[in-house]
What does this fold into?
Amino acid sequence: MSSMYESISRKVDELRNEIINTLTHLISIPAVNPSYGGEGELEKANALLEIIRGWPFDEVKRIDAPDRRAKGGVRPNILAIYRGKDESAGKLWIVTHLDVVPPGDLSAWTVTKPFEPKIVGDKIYGRGTEDNGQSLVASLYAVKALMELGIRPRRTVVLAFVSDEEAGSDYGIKYLMSKHPELFDKKDQALVPDAGNSDGSFIEVAEKSILWLKFKVYGKQTHGSTPHKGLNAHEVAITLANLLKNLLITKYSIRDALYEPPESTFEITMVSGTATSPNIVPGYHEFVMDSRVLPQYSLDEVLRDIGNAINLVKAMYHRKIENEEVPRIEVETIQRLDAPKPTPTDAEIVKALVKVLRETRGIEPKIGGIGGGTFAAYFRMLEIPAVVWSTIDEVAHQPNEYTKITNLINDTKTIATLITTI
It folds into this structure.
């Protein structure tokens, strides 16, 4: 174990209480994404700016994306910059997000209320503790530890605290990349501590393509006693859903051991309809399918197959009722992300993180891919090598979400050491 790590470890231990207090304070401020009915990230961003006021960052920028749905009409993105010794080396981005998902069923929160963080043993409970509070605070105090030790890294470090990760990042990292492309360079590297596993051994370098589709099926409503006078939209939708599931998992069946799970997945996740009584044959039904597709496949081909399946179901059920052709089936794309090329396993960020985990935590890392959905994909689209890593129990979005203090402190030490290594 290096003397550098020992110095960092001692300093982080000295900051332990401050680290815990900062996390509990930030978690107490709701930052529910406006796409899910919340006010957004403004209050949390202001609290974070107040916390770091006076810290010796070389520059702190706040870049707001306009959004009328959010409190203050903006979605804030904060960049806290700690300059390195070699300006030609490129930057190290460490990207975490301010927004959280809604609490869900409040009765399921049995330890504490979602935004009243509570410490029980080694765990801090509250909405956003794991996703993404732990890593936000760990990255923040990793840099503070280096500041207090008087250590300047080789690369400039950019701590990016961004909005809108939970709903597609249009007001967050994607906004920064589209409106401020000058911030990014192919010499940069990126750490995205927004997924991981319980022992910190998993380094994600690849993600599947994401395709979220909403299927809107229109039949003809009628009374339950006269089904011949209408067309049951539920029945049509169920037929379509089953056909899609069987067709897609059969055709797109390649397995790639880099990913967990190793195959493409097509899951029906949400359903709704208009029937409000047992004796109504519904005239409308909608469902959502969440597809995670291996990058070996084209999403355009998937969409063509879906279109063919829709045409087949329409032909199966076609009829004319009161001069109206039914069924009608519409498809809305909720989210589409075509997977970029994986981060090469010999990229500097990968090699540095592997080295740090082996030498400081005795971990033999596993390098692989996931179903998709982190900031890393956007960096890879810019040909910036990115890894996703953290030590978490994977309780994000669940009631009684928590983070372990042990993980919070150890990840702070790991991130600080990584900054000095890369």
Observations:
- The mean pLDDT is 97.
- Residues 209-337 form a domain with the Alpha-Beta Plaits fold (CATH 3.30.70.360).
- The radius of gyration is 24 Å.
